[in-house]
Amino acid sequence: MAGARGGPLRLSAALLAALPVCAQGAERHWYVDLHRFTPDLTGHFQGVSGGSPISVDFRDDLALRRDTTRIGASLEYQGPRFGLELSADSQTYAGLNTVAKAITIQGQTFQANTLVSSAVKAANTNFDWTIRCLALPRFWVGLDLGARLTVLDLEASGVNAFSGIKASSSYQARLPIPQLGPALGFTALDGRLEGRGMVHLLAFKGATYTHMGADLRYFPLDWLGVRVFLDSERFRVPEGSIKEDLDITLDRTGTGLGVVFRF
């Protein structure tokens, strides 16, 4: 794991060392974006959370699938030396499944052969400060520093097919994650085409987090454009790492489309 930590740290130090060569000529723009992001969500929680036992897998036990997606929004500034971005979006997932084995959510056990109806709302808020360490007229390389908060709200209820016993429970997981890693971008077609990419990496006490994204925008008008983007997050928190008695895995990957106003 030391190698995993060392790579991002060395890369971050190299990018910070390049700050004196920042260019002056890049344009300044503000962006307001409305988008729809439709990721798949898989993962499990196993152990003790908030003093209550939990043992559930989103796909195998609950059969969660995408249900609804709300319109997300972002506000950005992109300039010659740095960029700022604040964005938010949310999705809802629903499941209906007869569990093959007993599962536990916030201390409530759903016995085998219970038909469980479930819903998960995933709300995400993201802030990034991008330092443009090396900037050329149409290309830049930078370092992202920021934070991302993911909140998962799980609701489940069910009735056992044999005993008729009913059960219900709810659980909330708050996952604040620092954002650190390299970013790059380019412009083409006299500024009508813009592209960006980033990789955020974090490793601490055996837990790992990876966040990768790519974003392409085309502006048929100077002030109005469309965007398509990819985003992928991966949490791995083994039992005994940052949570002594809780094992968490979470994967969230999808594509998005949006409308961008540039001024």
Please explain how this structure is put together.
The chain has 263 residues and is mostly beta strands. It has a single domain, classed as Beta Barrel (Lipocalin). The protein contains one helix and 14 strands. The chain has one helix at residues 2-17; strands at residues 29-49, 52-57, 65-69, 72-78, 82-98, 103-105, 108-110, 114-135, 139-160, 166-188, 193-204, 207-221, 224-237, 246-262. The strands form two sheets. It has a ten-stranded antiparallel barrel with strand order 1-4-5-8-9-10-11-12-13-14. Strands 6-7 form a two-stranded antiparallel ribbon. A hairpin with a 4-residue loop joins strand 10 and strand 11 (193-204). The chain starts with a helix and ends with a strand.
Q: What structural category arises from helix and sheet content?
A: mainly beta
Uncertain stretches of 5 or more adjacent residues: 1-25
Q: Mean pLDDT, rounded to whole units?
A: 90
CATH class annotation: Mainly Beta
Strand content: over 45%
Order of strands, main sheet, comes to: 1-4-5-8-9-10-11-12-13-14
The CATH architecture assignment turns out to be: Beta Barrel
Oligomer: single chain
Order of SSEs, N→C?
HEEEEEEEEEEEEEE
Largest sheet: 10 strands, antiparallel, barrel
**Rg, Å, rounded:** 21 Å
CATH topology: Lipocalin
CA distance, first residue to last residue: 44 Å
Can you count the beta strands? 14
Number of continuous helical runs? 1
Instruction: Estimate the global geometry from the Cα principal axes.
Output: elongated
Helix content: under 10%
Whole-number total of structural domains: 1
